[in-house]
Amino acid sequence: MRHDEFAFVIYRNKVDTKISKLHRMAYIAWIRLKIFTGYRLRFALDILGICISVLQYLLLSLLANPQDLARLGYGTDYFAFVVWGVALARYVWDLVGMMVHWVWHEISSGTFGVIVSTTTSIKLWLMGQALFSTVWASIWFMGVILVASLVGFHPSLSIFQLIQTVFVILVMIIIHAGIGIMFTGISIYHKQVDVLVFLLAGIIEMFGGVIYPLSLLWNIPVLYYVALALPFTHGLEIIRKVAISGYSILTPPLLTHFIVLLSFVWIIPLGFKTVDYYLAKARRTGDVFSY
Amino acid sequence: MDEAMKELMTVFSGEPRKINILYRILIRTVARAKIRFSYKLWLFFDFLRTIIMVVTYYFFSFIVTPRHLIASGYISDYFVFAAIGLALGAFTSLSLRGFAITVFFEQITGTIECAFVTPSGILPILIGDILFYILYASTHCVLVLGILVMMGKITFTVWTILSVILLVLGLFLGNLPLGIISAALILKYKQGDPISLILTWLNYFLSGVFYPISLIPESIRMLSYVFPLTWTLHGIRLAIMYQLPPWHSDVIITLGISFAYALIGIPLTYMFFMWIFNKVRKEGTLVHY
């Protein structure tokens, strides 16, 4: 069956349509991926952007003092330090930004109301968007790692380190997908939430320790506590310590970070609650179709 | 119809009248400013983002070794180096994209033909918008430099301020040809502003916004010298760090290079813009997006 025929089957309003939820979700993600890969110029621009960004951080790494970095507990390779930071920040940015972008796209083109009225539930639709965004963001995350590895980033991870790293990234992504769902919920009613995504990206860049070690914030306790309130900070801290310094996630400081990271799981149900709340509100005020 | 709208209509209507071109430009600048300032939340986050970048590089400066900065002729404080780079990088990207954004907006909203057929023509519209983007970009510059002054990292004398103003003007004029090329390509290819985006990335990468260009491998360093930002950034950094007056040789050389870029680049790129513009008109795709 062609993908457009399949899309029709998923979205049509026949009550007796029997397609598993997982299948619908996967297909929503697949359709989105098909649409997005059609924008070849954007694709090429993203690749160029990644290459320039990685080279820029490579040159920046020549300025960093390895002794200072080692003293703060991150080894002597600043390039490795910054590549993990930038790759993960980009991962989160792409994930959340892409989810919000697609809902905005449906709302602004007036098709969101149609989606809401199909037999596929909005939650399932959003999970499909989250799945697509995760796949898309993963491609670019791997792109950053790949380009960086061509110019001097050599992550030598044992199988045990690799499993821990992938596991923590997965937890981070699930939690940030929850933030993305929350933002999309807000956008159903408030429409323009780009500024929130920009703010999140800025906060992560500033407080998450993307280009500098988190411990530098100890001198300003207020900023340090703000940093600790972000799930990204904990995830990045664990990944750097595991992937660069070779620590196990079970060592007490990392375990503490991991427990705190896990404690942010409440964001996911809150995200869905936000969607329910704003969708109900938009239905009441008649704003589902309006932009 | 409120008073502001009546005034705008007077300027752009087809009735024969004598309105100074400078006044037309000014009106357009004010109109663009009113539009931009109506997005208050966006405006707030735009400035917040600049502050966030400054704070981020402030923390990064704690782990920087000053060896390369000193070797390149700058003072040892990386934060001052990076903040000036950020201020001018933001200025360049905002002013560079200003020209392209204007054409892009007129095109996607379908008003580009209307703009061309008014007695005012497109020129006051473009210049008025560019003027707004320069002023807006300058406020980002002033914000960053203000942070440095408040932190006691730099001090300004009257002559240094004059040097900086002249150099920033040179920076804008030197970058204008790139903006004109970008706008011409938007007219032709109807693709948002990817050209100005790429130019902005290359500017940040090659012009030494975050690191001295001596760190760039020699094989590609030659490309750095193609971008006017490289020269101006170096000149402005020296002017601010060492409080140079406008008659200092470093300032004069930088100004000379910037104005040379402008003198050669603006007429050439203007001809290129008009060539594309006429071609698009002949094809009848001016208003298409």
Which outline of chain A best applies? globular
Number of beta-strand segments of chain A: 0
Q: Beta-strand level of the residues of chain A, as a percent range?
A: under 5%
| SSE series of chain A | HHHHHHHHHHHHH
- Secondary-structure element order of chain B, N to C: HHHHHHHHHHHH
Percent strand of chain B equals: under 5%
Oligomer: heterodimer
* Portion of residues within helices of chain A: over 70%
Q: Tell me the Rg of chain A in angstroms.
A: 20 Å
User: Which descriptor suits the 3D outline of chain B?
Assistant: globular
Question: Spans of chain A of 5+ residues with little confidence (pLDDT < 50)?
Answer: none
Largest interface: A-B, 31 and 31 residues
Count of individual helical segments of chain A: 13
Class computed from helices, strands and strand pairing of chain B: mainly alpha
What integer is the average pLDDT of chain B? 84
Rg from Cα of chain B: 20 Å
**Count of domains of chain A:** 1
Report the major sheet of chain B. Answer: none
Which class of secondary structure composition applies to the elements of chain A?
A: mainly alpha
Main sheet overview of chain A: none
Structure description:
The complex is a heterodimer of chains A (291) and B (289). With 291 residues, chain A is mainly α. Chain A has one domain. Chain A has 13 helices and no strands. Chain A has helices at residues 3-11, 21-37, 40-61, 66-71, 78-108, 112-116, 122-150, 159-190, 194-207, 221-228, 231-243, 252-262, 267-285. Chain B has one domain (18-283). Helix content of chain B is 76%, strand content 0%. Chain B contains twelve helices and no strands. In chain B, helix 3 (40-60) runs antiparallel to helix 5. The longest helix of chain B has 35 residues, at 249-283. The two termini of chain B are 31 Å apart. The interface between A and B is medium-sized, with 31 and 31 residues.
